[in-house]
Every structure is written in structure tokens, then in C-alpha cells.
Structures
1.
Amino acid sequence: ERLIQRDLMTALEDAKESSTSQLILLCGSVGDGKSHLLAYMNEEHPELMEGYQIHNDATESFDPYKNSLDTLAEVLKGFSDDHIEHSNEKLILAINLGVLHNFLESDYAKKHFTKLSSFIEKSRIFESDYLSENIQDTHFKLISFSDYHPYELTKDGPKSDYFVQLLEKIVQDDPGNPFHTAYEKDMENGLNTPFMYNYRLLKRETVRKLVSHLLIKASVQYKQIISTRAFLNFIHDIIVPSNIETNSIIEELEAFLPNLIFDSPDRSPLLSVLSKLDPVHFRSKKIDEVLMQLNNTNNIVDVFQEHLELDEQEEWIEQLSDLGAFYELTNSSKQVLNSTLIRFAYFLGKNFQDDFRQQTYEKYMDYLYKYNVGDVKGLRPLFKEVKEAVFNWKGKPKKNKEYIFLEETSKDMNIAQSLNIRPYVNHLNTQESDILYRFKNVIKIGFQDENKTEQAFLEIDFPLYQKILKVLNGYRPNKKDKEDAIQFIEFIDKLLKLSKKEDELMIYDHTEDLLFKLEYDEDFNEFTFKRE
């Protein structure tokens, strides 16, 4: 059960008490589950849906010669200004936000649906800065998928009840679970294959939580949209290998869940993204030591058992002894063993937690939570990072921290201007909540001029934050970086306009490491040029 399902049920229960016309707008984007939710409600809660007509703007049309706006106007006729007070019609309209916006801009809305238009405008559903809320009045109720995500934000980091509970339903030991019933029958028949082991591995709560965290990372770091259908396909793909029959222990290792998650980029777009999160890309002292130990061992089994939390059902581990000494193996077999050990360590490793931590990701998610709860003090380090990144991106004279280069004019000289900016936080909304189910998934921060009259804003997603930290650590952006970070460059340009470069400029001589200031003297209405 998802929160939006409860919101819809509450709206239907409230509407049941009313004798007036009732329009429930179920708003969202393409593929976010509006149709699925309505189908579920029809199936499981017909008593709440009784008397309601349902119209899905994306799938229904009455006349091939009418466009979507003509059809909408016809569907909503009972809720027009002329009919709404005399109608007792009940309608659920599943509508994409783009279509709804177009309808509000149409002549239909301006001439015949002013009450509906006024209600939608009050919802502020099209304002990117505003956290969307479900609202209602006498005739209208608006429920929006906007700002819902498949995971929650907490002060201790993100989590996903949605992912974890669906994974749990697949593996729970329950007579009503057909997957577990089939698993037990296969166990009775002595079936011992990688997909049996993968299912057993997924029965571990720690593994399910780590899988859910990987999916959250895919959503945040690579903006991967994970529909319920894609998620269920994913569960199949990490249990059932593409080649069910294995002819060697090496092939069997490749068919195990840790390898299927990180080394199956061609099976689905989601698995392609997860391959970029492969723990084999991590490096730490402990990981390097473990790999060196494996590469120099005569007993591969001992290395796996020493570093992994295995149980008595992991029969495959004993088969590794048949491989002999590591150095005698082919390069491809060595590579499979190295990758398998690291990937298994990610899920079942003994004291490997710190070795697979992504500090940049953790910092971003902490800032994201603090932004959504309006924790101004908690965001102070982020403001400092962004400000320093602005100066590092453009460059600054060595002797003066408050000046920033405009453009590279020559190899020997640069022109700089002063940039005195202060954080702007008035757009932040404070709320006290340890867990957020609805939130903005990007951080919007602002800076203002010294007089506090003008502001410039920047929306920071994870890729941009990653780039900001790289620049802080001395990375010099190349041409491609500048093309990718166009939003950041535009933000810097807005900041530069907050400072009055017509009053003073700094000229920096690289060859002699000298600074000169060109400054306007308001008293004498003239410019002065002097060495700093």
C-alpha cells in the first residue's frame, strides 16, 4: 500500500458523504501508476467507487475528430460554471499535468470552467518551488502524484518501504505466496540451482535492504524512473539467470544474485544503471588486501569463508576447492572470482560497511533531507561549498578572495570583479518530521547581493553536487563539463550581475603576479587606476 492510495481512499470516503457533484482529479506524469491505482480500487474497493465515472485523459477519446481539450470539455460539462450547482455527477479524472495545464490555458477553461480553474490555481500544482499537497473544496478534490517518490527521506538517510515490502512479499514464508510454495516443492525434489540459491539469498533481510538502497541510488544518482512493472521485472532478473543451465563452478558463480545485479547491463535499462554502481569500482585498503590475499592463495575456499557471512546452505563454496591454486586459473576465471568476492562482500561481507560507503552520496542525501525540512543551519556547509565552487570554477586572483575572473582575456592577463554575496534562505519552508514521504528531489539554494534586494537561485541534483565537490578538490572543468553544467554557468552569470562591475574592476598580471584596480570615484566623477 502506498500513501497516494490512502489519500485517494480518504477522498472517496469524504465524497461519499456529499450529495453535491464531486470531481476528483488524479494528477501526475506519464507512467506513474494512475491507471493501475484506479484498476486496483475498482477491484478491491468497489463500494468506494460506486457511482463514479472514470475518465483517463491519456487513453480515452470520444471522437477521432476531437482533440484532447475538446474531449475534456465534454467530459467535464457537469462541472462547468453553468451546471456545477445543479449536477450530482461523480467523476474521477486521471490526467497528466501537461494536459491539465493546456486545458487551463484554453478558451474552455477561461469561459466555462472558471470555478474549476480557480481551484486548480489555488493548489499551486504547477509551481516547481511549492511542495504539492492534496486539496479539496465542496465540489473538487485534487490528488497529485507529484513529489511522491519510491523512497522516503529520514534524518538517518533514505529508505524505501515500497521496495523492501515488495521484496519481502516475494520471499515471505506464507501459504498464500505462490513463489515460496514453489520454492519449497523444488527443495523437496532436491533441486539445487543458482536461482534456488538466489531466492534463498533474497530471503535475508539485510540483502533486501541493500538491494533497496541500490535502487534508491539509481533513482537519485542517475534519475532512473523505477515503475512497479520495471521493479518486478528486476526481481525476476536478479533471481533467474538468462542461462539456467551451468556447466562449471565459474558459470555458476556468474549466475548468482550479486553478479546478476551488477553484471547484467544488457538485460534491462535498470540493470544497466546498476552496473555503474558495481562495488568492484570501489577501492580501499581492506579491499586491496583481500584481493591480494585471493590472488596469492592456494585455497580459494578459505578466503571466501574468511571474509563472507555464509551459512550451511551455501554448498557451492566447497566446489571452489576443485579449482586448485588461484595462479593456475585462466585470466577470465580469475576475473570472475575477484569480482564475485567483492560483490558478495557488498551483501555478505564481514565488516566491509565503511569500504563501500559513498560519502558524496551520503552528504547529498543529508542535505536533501535538511532542505526539505527547512534546516537552515544544517545547510550552512552547502552554501559555503557552492560559493567556493563558484570562485574555483571561474578562478580568482591569488591575493584577493572576494574577486572572481570574468573571462580569460589572454594568457598573461585576466580581468576580475568583486563578488560579495550572502546566502538567501527565505524560500525554505520549515517542517518538523523525522520521515518525509513527499518531498522535492533537488535542492534549491539562493544567494543575494549585499543590499539584500536581488537574488539568484540554483537547483542542485546529485550529478551537479558531485561536480561541485570535484571543483572544490582542485578539478579544472573542461569544455564538456561546461556544456554539461550549463545550469551552473547560468547561475554564476546571475551572481555576477548582483555585483556592480561598473564601479570597479581588478586586472591581474599572471606573469608578474601583480594586481591593479580600476575604480570609479563617485565624489570626483572619475576613474582611478592603481596597483594593489
2.
Amino acid sequence: LATGPKKRNRNFEITDEDRKYWAFQPLNSVAWAADEQVLTASQKIDLLIARHHSLQPEDIQSAPPRELVRRLFADLWGLPATFEHVYRFEKFAGASSSRDNDPGNNNAAIEKEWETLIEELLDSHHYGERWGRHWLDWVRYAETNGYERDGMKPHVWRYRDYVIDSFRDDKPYDQFVIEQLAGDEWLEVQGWTAKTHPKEWRDAIIATGFYRLHIWDDEPDDTDLAEFEDADDTMVAIGSAFLGLTLGCARCHDHKFDPISQNDYYSLLKFMRGIDPYGLSRKGGGGRGTGRIQRFLVPDEESAQWEQDRQSKILLKQSEFDAATDPAVRLKIQGELKELRDLVPPFDAALSVAEQSGGPKPTHVLHRGDPHATKEPVDSRVPEVLQLMADIPMANGGSEQQGKSFSKSCGLRLKLAQWVVHPRNPLTARVMVNKIWQRHFGVGIVPTPDDFGRTGQPPSNPALLDFLAKEFIESGWSIKQVHRMILSTKAYRSRSQSVSGFSDPAYYQPQLRRLDAEGVRDSVLAVAGELGSKKNGPSVYPSLTQEIRDSANPVSVSAWQDSPIEDQKCRSVYLVVKRSLRVPFLEILDFTNSTAPTAIRNVTTTAPQALLLLNDPWMQERSLQLARRLGDLENPEARIRKLWQLAYQREPNPEEIRIATEYIARLRGPRTAEQPEVEQAWISLCRAILNSNEFLYVD
């Protein structure tokens, strides 16, 4: 009988059992027989799955071509496949199967076509948008601070665009992590500047916005406590997103289940104690001022020169004001002075990290997490149970870097980042490949993707997890290569029903899966022919109904300015993410909780979802546009065929044509100039199609 994880002893100590725990062990290599060594990575994955379930790889039945193409588009793009893509793959698969009598040649040809389709999707910006949104879930991305006023985080959308571009370009994952944890320090080690490497420099500065994504109270009761709340939020995100550890559980006491002590927690926090807090404490003022949270994306000397010129103009104008005696002249100069003082620098800016002068703050263990009850001081180090990895030499400089002096920081964050992504650290690669697997199959090899500790669940197939992690590292930390390996397996391409004796949901497509919130909205726009081409830039505010405006937080609504209608036809990843007022359409369909890292979204089936998709004005308008997209064909059957091709990527069968034709005939009234046929019966049919399971679910 399962009783849950065992609670640790009150007196903290690292035991042999702790050190032998699977997540803290080095990655294991698989011993392959001579004939197995020549297999591709995808074939080896299938072999590991088959071994685990005492099956043969050929026991896994492949899904039909249309099902595969729809699944691939949904996973890599979050958009519906096109009829043309499905038709091409179906036709190719059919022709290949009858081309000659050699099954090997047939299979090789189909495999080649499947690989071509995978590459086409991976090369698209749509891939970056889809998988960038997954990452934003994992790091609790939002564009506001939360709490009562929910103020905006300036320029944070640049972090969103950085993430999207990084996935699209297949930036090595170790570099992706280092840039977020210590991009500014990493640049110094590389010797890169805004002039010598403008794109790399810009990316690394924007990436450090990771440290600014947390919720932030602009008027806390206790400013010291609030500063540690912010730091804890970041610790939780690092543990969840990169390491799969619930680090936050050790803030007030030793972790009750995992071998992470309170001393470990504050020693790890020490790596980040040089950061200038998001809001600088103002003692006795009942509030928090704004720290150095932005940085201009130009060389420092350029922004400094601009500021120097502005101050010179202000001094000159002030002299003119002091010398003037005419009231009208003084009033005019006063206005010019105000303009100069309010002048906004003409440079791009990013929400980014900054460090305080004087090095990191002293750090102590805090009794029950209370900053006013300090205990022993600590220095920076990784958790004791991970000491087998603590002596990892620092990359990009080795021992010389240990004594390197950074111009604007203490260098501790870079040490942390390089430890996180070092190949000898088994957690980081395991966590990422498991999250990729989970997004493709619905369930991870480790079913708790953000918790590899005792309160999580162990891997259902440890050999498979470690094989993927090692391949990930050896590929140069290429996320796209992990996709290629997984998507080419028989397991991924299996039917959506369990195979006899093969019932582990981590290894087969177990059932229909509903599109997520963004997938529903983006697919509706795509099928209606309205999906815009926006690829970056400030976020879009969709229109709010009057009911929402009347009931929402007045502060949130006052800052919500509806964007132009055409701009609103963008992909959902570009919609604003306000913590106090999430986009209603997405929220009803289980959009992420942006206050904490989200590894697995809730999936619900509720009456409001059905009512939204049937009656929402936005859905009504999309149904109208889809009906108009069917063209002005006089033959209803031709329109029905086009509708099925757009929405379902297939031809309707005779029974479906009959039912749809009768439906149109029953609803169609006399055609008039004021009320053409498309405005009623066809809108109703299109709305029904957009509400159907075949549209909203993917095999």
C-alpha cells in the first residue's frame, strides 16, 4: 500500500540512501549489442520502450497518415495542418506502399518524407512561438507585477521574443540557461560587447529579465521580508525550470522529504545576493522605490553621452529661466524645461538584471525564514547532497575565472549557471528532455516534470530517460535534435489506442487530447483565414466585453487599452499576460497560472467552455469569416467539401455531405440583398464545425 514519501529525521544529515537516489546519480549509459549499435537514436528509443514492456517494436501499430500529420502540426506549431500537407503525405505513403515489393525501400521512402515534414515545421517561426510559450509557462512569465495595482513590467515582452527566437534558432540549451542566469557576466568572459557582437550582447542582456518575472508588492508591510519573498520566487523558478527540485520547501526549515537543508537553501541564494532588488527598500516610507530594473540596449557610453547632453541642455535652459524677467518668457522656458526633464531616451530598453555596488549582501540562515531573525552566515555553494558535482571546473575560463574581476558584478551567478548546465550535472538534461517528452506524449517519463524529488514520482523507464539526456548533451544541447529523435519513433507515431500489454501512458498516444487554450484560439483564426503575421514587438490587448469591464479590477481595466482589431488577429503568445486580468477567452480554456512555474496545465471540461465557443461574439465573427472564406460557390456540396478540408484536413464522406446539405436547406431562408445566404445557414454550420470534437481534439 502506497503511503507517500517518508518524512526525514528532525536532525538533518545526508545518508547513503540520499546519495544513491536516482535523480542525483550520474547519467547511465545503455549497453548495446553489436547489431543494436548501428540503430538510429529513434530506433534505440523504440527498443528501450519495447524492452521495458516485453514487446517487439513491430507490435506498435502506426497511426494513419492524416492522424500523424495533424498530431505533428499540433505539437510543433500549435496550429491545424493544411489539407495540402495531409493529402501529400497520404498520397506519398499510399504510393510508397505499392511502389515495389521491397518493404525496406518502402519504409525508407516514407521515413524520408516524414523527416522532411519534421524539418519543414522545425524551421518555421511558428515552432518558436509554440515551444517558446511552453517555456514561458515553466518560468511563470507575465507582464505585470501582481498584487492590487498590478503595475506593468516595462519592456518585458522583449524576454518573450528572446525565448521565441531562441527556440526557433535552436540556441544550445546550455547557452540558453547561462544567458538567463548570468548573461551579463557571461558576456564579459566571452569578451563580447555591444559593438563587437551586437546580437549576442543584446540577447544576453534581455535574457536576464528572467530574474524580473516574479510577482512584486510595491507597498509591502515589511520591505526586508518582501525582498526575500522576491528572492524565494526566483529560487522556486530555478528549481522547477532547470533542476526539477522543490527548493522553496527549505526556506523556513530543512526540507521535510528531500536532502536539502535550510543551510543549503541560503547558500544557494548567496549566488544571487548581488542582484539589485526589483524594488529598492525605502525604510519607514511604507513603499518600495524602483531599483535598476531596465537597461538600454546600446553601449553604455552611448546612453551616458545622451544623458550628459540632456543634463547640459537642462542647465543651459535653467540659466535662461533664471535670467528671464518677462513672465511670458519664463512660462515658455518652464515648459521647455519640463519637456527636457521628461524626455525619454531614444534607445531600445529591456527589463534586465543589475548588481549592487560593493558585492553581494551578507547572507545568513533565517530562523523560519524571518529576515529579522538571522542565524549563522553562509557562503555560496550548491546543496550538500550534490557535492559530487560541486567541484565541476568552471567552463569558459577554468580556474583563471575564479579570480576574474567583473566590471559590474561579483561573478557568482555565472558560477551557478555553469554548474547548472555542466554535463556532469545530471539534473538539467534529464529535466529538459522529460519536459519535451511530456509535451509530445501528454505524460512525462517522470510524471512530475518539475519535481524529481521524493514528493514526485520516479521515472517509469530510467534507461530511456538517461539515454535521451545523454543524446541531448552529446548533440550540443540541441532541443530540435531531441524533437527529431522522439518524433521519428514508432512510439510517437502509434495509434491513439493502447496496444495489448503496452498500457503505460508515457509511451503511447493514449487518447484524444484537446487543444490547449492558445491552440484553440490560434486554430480558429487559421481556419478562418485571419491569422496575422505578427512575429515580435509589444503585446496586443484583445477587446474586452462590457461585462468584463464592469466586474474586473478597476486598476487593471483602466490600464487595458484595446488594440486595433487587425492587430488582435495575432497568435495568442503575443497577447498581453496580466496577472490580475487574464484574457477571458484563454482563461476559460485553462490558460496557465502565471504566478508560479507551471509544468502541467490543468485540463478541464466545463459548461462555460461550451458556452464560450458557441456564443462568444469573437467566435461568431470567426464563423462569419470562415463562411465567407468558403467562397461564392453556387454548389453547396463544393462549399461543404472546402469547409471539411479547412477544418478537418480531409474530404467529407457521403453521409456528412447529406447531413450538412439538409442542415443548410433547413436553415436557409429567402436570399435578399440585406441578408445573403452566407450570413445565416453557413455561419451556423461553420460555428458547429468549430465546436466539434474533431476540430478541438487531436489524436
3.
Amino acid sequence: MTMPAGLMGVNGSGAGVLPPPPPPFASSVTPEQVWGYVNEQELRTQELRSRWEDDYQLYLLKEPAAEDGYERHVTNEPMTFADKIMAYLSTAKVLIRFPVESKQAAQRQREDVKERFILGALRAADTLLAALVLPSLRDQLGAYITLRGSYGGRVLMQIEQDGSTSIEVMPWDPLHTFYSVGRRGIEWACYRMTRMKEDVRAEYGVEPVAGGLGVDGREIEIFDYYDREMNAVCTRTEWLKPPTPHGFRFAPVFLGVVGPLPPLRGDLETLTLESYGESVFKANREAYRNFNATMSDMRTLVRRSVKQGLKVFSQDGKKTLDQDPYREGSVVSLRTGSEQVEPLGLLEMAKETAGFLGQVSGEVQRGSLPHTVYGELQFQLSGFAINTLRQGIDSALAPRRLALQRAYRDIASLLVREMATGQFASVSLSGYGYAGDYFEGAFGSQDMQGRDSPEVDVVVSLPQDEPAKYAIAKIAREGPKPLLPDRIILDQILGMQNVDAIQDVVLEERGATLSPVAALVSLITALDNQGRGDLAEIYLADLQRLLMAQQQGMAGPGAPPPGAGAPPPGFTPSVAPNAMLGRGPPAPLPQGTLPLVPPGSARPGAMPPQAGEAGLRDRLARVGLELGR
């Protein structure tokens, strides 16, 4: 990864100037020039790439081997810390929204189509990654953001041979990513990878003739290049895919770094990358080494206490023991008076060791996550303690969360911009909306008109005091004049997502109880969905009587006020159905009032039962209502 063009870079000596970005691909550009340019930029950013590799070795718990006779201790803190951050990012909720200035339904519907397109496209991209036996997009981005402190990748929509449109979102390892930024943004980007010769031949139809890597020479180094006009793939010496227009007026690449610090300039000629794009190990690299060194010393002394050194006295000083005296049942033969064996004595740690180790442990915890997030709770935490714990977690998590948020914003924007070019036929996508509803449909370029940059929010689930939250929400909601509106309570106090969808469901349930007709229709619908058409017929008769009373204006004075067990205003108990009075269905008529029929037969004059939506429509049509679903 390189700095923007025109900025001072860092080479092996600590200073240098990066050359300007290469021009767009032309017939004069050769694969050798592409490889040479990438190789030159790798040398100039070696300081940054070396730090990335060291951090990955720290995550793998790789430490130098101990000397003979000494023990080595390696703490698992770097791996557990990084895994916890990656788990937070992998399980976070990514909310993608297009803000709507007006509340007009037509505008909101257009933006909702684009939101569903992005959700379906991301789902299709994850499906492709799974087919390639790769982690999901969020998992890979979370890993790179955590361990590298940087992220990148390409977003491509392509027309396949069968005419269908495929969507690919492929993250890149920052260690092998090179790019240059100009006044308009990313001018070009190149990703280096290795592939087996047979895989290259199968994908590109070209037999590589040189550049073999690995023990058997079967691996090929490949460069995948993108600029604002062209895409090309080459080895060090030959084209695998000649420069081809990709059809966009921008590089279909997203790139970014973690943290607030830009490349800092020490003076007019040097630019340091020491704090540019930091991993989660930024604060603890040296603390981990100190902790491992002290624990290794303690482990060495503990091990030596099991098998102490021995002093062997003899007349000529050449006496040795043929057997291990610490082994059970061993026998050591000695001469009387002239030979003797004594333990050398135990070594002890300095008395300041415990204090020093405690100080180092505190530094490690302050630079990572509190130990309580791993379940190390000796007592129940209060709401104040949980809030304090959240602040400690957020200091390490917030920069990574914001980086993931920016990555998804760039990816979503590229998807909309590429689809809006009109190069692709409609693409069929499916997925789940934010309200949990499943959708499936075709999306075209006409659906992408308007704003192409959505608002993205990444919400991480952190420990919190749930009872305290609901208690505060209840206080804010109670009384004739609530302190806060429901939207603020749901969003900021309870931290719920999809506030609009939640309020719609609440209003739907409340509306079904305010109107007696709506309440009976909801009840009939629920019974029909459960296959209880017999009970639905009973309440359908109640609904029919209620509608007749409403049409004939049978309501009059003397109706009881609304309340528990009383019908709604405007209906007398004589015409209100039992369901409105809180009673059960009417008792069946005694045997003998109806003609006898065989068991299981329908009652005389009854309509044949129908199941599903068709049956419900038929029932409601009989009382003059229509089902609107």
C-alpha cells in the first residue's frame, strides 16, 4: 500500500519521494513495467509492511525459542484479544439506509428499493465467497481491520457467458495491495497474489511460460490491476488478461485505514508510517514482550525447583552420578567420608517481581480489553460498572467499528454506481430486510436513480444492564406528558434497531383492538392461519351481526362506557358479539334441535370449508369485506 501521489514516502533509508502514479494502460505498457512499479513501491513502504507481518506473528503467538536450560512462556493475550475484537465485528449489525428528506411515500419507496438491492447484492457476494471456500465479507474485513489496521478490495459486477449478471465483492490483504491516490481519489490499485499454474490455465486460458515460484515451480505471481478505465491481469513477463475497459469512470476499488492519525511528517523531507493504519496491538507490543520475559523467568525457576542442581563432593573432584537421584527408586553409591551429594539450593525471584508483573499486567489490560469481557466475574456488576466496562471496550473497538462502517459504505456506494451505469440487465437478488421480511425480485439501472451514497451504521452488541435500561425507558414514557417521544426511547435508550418497523407493528396491534371490526377480522385471520375454520365460522357470524348493527344504526343511548368487559361506544350489549364483551363463543345448541347427521359431516346449509387465504377471502366476502394483504 502506498501513500497518495505527491506525498513524501518512506524507503529503506527512512526518506524518499514516491513517483507519480503511472498513466492509464496503453499499448506501450508492458507486464515487466507493472511488476517493476509494484516492486519499487513495496520497497518504499517496507516499514509499514514489516509492521503488519510482525503483528501477524504476534497474533500467532510466535516467539523466539528459549535457550537450552531455560523455559519459555508465551501469553495467549494477543490471540484472545484479537479474536474478541473480530468476534464483535463479525456479529455486529450493519444497517444501510438512504436518508429521506421528505416523508413522501413514493420517495421512501424508491430508496427502499436501493436498500434491498444492496442487501441482496451483499448476500450474493457472500454466497460467492462461500463457494470459493472463503470466509464471509464481514469476517474477512474484520480480520484485516483488526490485524492489519487497514482494508481494501474490489467490487465488480460482470456479465457472464449466459447473459446473467454476477456480483463479486472480494477483500484484499493489505500486505499485497498497492495503490495511488490523486486529486479525484483512487487513480489505480493493484493486488498481488499467487496461483497454481493449472488454475491460471483454467481461468485465463493461457499457459504461463515463466515466473514459477515455490519448491516445484508450479506457483505463479499474478498482478490484478485496476484504474479509472482499464483492468488487466499479468505475470511478471506476460499478459493473462490484456488491458480491457471495465466500463466505469472510476476504479472499482475500496481502500481505507484504521485510526484517526494520518501519515505524520517529521520534517520537510521525511514521512513516518509508524502510526498509520494501526492494528489492535498498537499499545501492547512492548508490554507483551515484557510480560513474556518475566513469566519465562518465573517458569524457569519453577521448573528448576522440581529438579534442583546438585553439589557432588569427591576426593579428586571427578565424581559423577550414574543415575538420576530425583527418579523414584534410584540408588546412588558413595564412598564413606570422601564422597557426598548435596542439593545446590533454590534460586528465588527478586522481591520486586510481583509488583513489576502486576504493573505489566495492568498495562496489558489497559491497552486491550478488561478481563471481565471474557466472563471473569467474581461478583455481580452494577449498572454503573457495566457502563464503565462499555467505555473500556469502546476505546479499543470504536476505531475498528468505524473502519468497518466506512468499508461497507464504500462497497454499497460502488454497487449502486456500477448498477446505475446501465451496462447490466436486471439482476435477480434475494435476502432479508431489516424488519426480518424475506424479499426476492429483479433490480435494474432505473432503480438506482438519485443518491448513490447511503448512510451506514455498524452496531456492536456490548454488555449492558438490561433491567436498568427498561426502567429508564418506563420513566421516560409514563405520565400524561412523557419526557421523551417513543422514537427517542426506542432508539437511544433501548438501543433497538428498525424503530420505524417496530412502531408500525405496535400501531398495527393497537389498531386491531381499537375497532371491533378490526379486532374480529384479526381474530378470524389468526384462526384461519391455524386451520381452525370451525371457530372462524362462529366469529364470522359475530362479525356479520356487528356489521348489520352498524349499517342499521341500532346504537342508542344507554350503552355502557368503554372499559374492561364493555363493548366499544356506539354498540349496545344486545348487538355486540361475545368477543367484544370478553366472553367465549356461544354454547352449542342442545342435541335434538338440529337434524342428526353422521359424525364429521358439515352442518345443514353450511358452506364447504376452505383452507388458506382463499378460504379467508371467501368468508370475509360473505359479510361484504375484502382481505388486503
